[in-house]
Amino acid sequence: MKLMNTDFIPSNYEQMEDKELVHLFRKKDDQLAFRELMNRHQSKIYSYIFSMIQNREIANDIFQETFTKVITKMDDTYNEQGKWIAWVMRIAHNATIDYIRKQKRFVDVSSSYDKESKTDFYDRLPDEDSIDQHEKLELDESTESLLKHISNLPEEQRTVVMLRHYYEMPFKEIAELTDVSINTALGRMRYALINLRKMFDEEHEKESNNV
Amino acid sequence: MKKKDHKSIAYIFKEMDPSEEVEFERSLQDNENLLIEVESLRKVNEKLSSLPHFSAPPHLIEEISSKARNKTAKPRMNWIKPFYLATAAIVMVGFTGSILFMDSTSSDQDSASDHAVVGSTNMIYSDQEKPGALSESKAKITPWIDNNDILHFNERLQNEDSAQIDSMLKDSYQRLTPVTDPIQSRMLQRNLQLTGSQ
Questions:
Q1: Radius of gyration of chain A (CA)
Q2: N or C, where is chain A less crowded by C-beta within 10 Å?
Q3: Closest by alpha carbon to B16, among B27, B25, B7?
Q4: d(C-alpha A96, C-alpha A115), whole Å
Q5: Is B46 on the interface with A (CB under 8 A)?
């Protein structure tokens, strides 16, 4: 998926490898090179973040945070020997997981009864209808249910599914990124597929009962 | 989890060595349950392929691009690097110089103390002899070893200071005490043998 460009990117940039573009941006401050890198990879990165968080606004924030780090840290921490996209992906993944874990902590802390507002955790939950309205995306029914099922997967399994789907990342790299063994990464993928199969079966059963 | 469970995922996602793949396909033919499992997982995975790709909003891309522009627009201050390098070099040279200076000072002191030691050693053998005189007398000394492997310096004994050395030896002999308890002396001997270098 390409972006609408305000700058015209010459065709020779499109033929360049990531490595060359990164080099041009770092050493010659070439803005077109950075633009081309964004064109190539923004969709993968944004899709990963959005499918993990499933909230546009937060996904936007994390995406921006990721690229701010990319711009400011590229000179210091990125080693041109490695794949640029893998490095960016690690930043995006860490930012996403950080957010998810913070949310979990927030839910744990705020789940108790609040004397001042006389509400408990369930009262403080946002209205789902308002979220749906806000997050409304133009998706077909099956895609929507697929996204819903994926959001119900445990975080570790969801991460493996998304990294594999959006980045076509080898399991070895997924294992490295998530700090687990390759067998654990493979196992997580297997459990994710089994869980999704169960969810699809249940959904199918409900639909057939309704009919 | 069994190894075969991992293998089914590696097989579906084509992350197997060709030889492993052939072996796994053989086991699929033999094991109907495994075949059903692999096929059902494959179907679920195919459903995942319909997951949409989302694009970041254009205004966000613009914002990020302008951040990248701002970053490069800032003066890079390339002069800072050589400045830091020059400062580091000066500090390094100064540090090395001071270490060398301190080292030479301490070695001078060491050599002075060495002379003192030599001097004091000489004092033992030849009371008034100066270090320079020692080197002169070196040529005259012809040491010899007797049957008991004792080193002798004949010349030194024939020297005019021999009387003084004799008196020193006499003094030291007088300090020796006769052995009254042979058992204790034997123990001492043993101790000496135990701790000796031979």
A1: 20
A2: C
A3: B7
A4: 32
A5: no
DSSP A172: H
Average confidence (pLDDT) over A52-64? 92
Measured at the CA of B51, the angle between CA B50 and CA B56, to 5 degrees, comes to 135
CA–CA gap between residue B182 and residue B103 (Å, rounded): 54
Does the pLDDT value for residue B114 go beyond 60?
no
Using DSSP's 3-state secondary structure scheme, residue B80 falls into helix
Confirm whether A1-96 and A138-211 share one CATH topology: no
Interchain contact, B47 vs A196, CB within 8 Å: yes
Q: What ipTM, to 2 d.p.?
A: 0.74
The SS3 assignment for A142 reads: helix
- Distances from the Cα of A52 to the Cα of A89, A143, A168, B44, B45, angstroms: 13, 15, 16, 19, 18
Both tokens assigned to B51: 């997951």
The proportion of chain B whose per-residue pLDDT surpasses 90, expressed as a percent, equals 23
> Could you tell me if residue B22 is inside a domain?
yes
The structural domain count of chain B equals 2
- What amino acid is encoded at A98 in this protein? D
| Domain ranges across chain A | 1-96, 138-211
Judging contacts by C-beta atoms under 8 Å, the chain A residues touching residue B64 are 38, 64, 67-68, 71
Burial of residue A65 (number of CB atoms within 10 Å: 0-12, 13-18, 19+): middle
Judge: B48–A161 Cβ closer than 8 Å, yes or no.
yes
A64 at interface of B, judged by CB pairs closer than 8 A: yes
CATH of domain A138-211: 1.10.10.10
- Say yes or no: domain A1-96 is CATH 1.10.3720.10: no
B-contacting residues in A 131-150 (Cβ below 8 Å):
137, 139, 142-143, 146-147, 150
Q: Convert the pLDDT of each residue in B135-154 to its tens digit.
A: 444 556 677 777 777 777 66
Range of the domain at B143: 123-129+137-178
CB burial of residue A63 (10 Å; 0-12, 13-18, 19+): buried
The per-residue pLDDT for range B43-81, each reduced to its tens digit, is 999 999 888 888 999 999 988 988 888 776 555 555 556
In a domain, B27, yes or no: yes
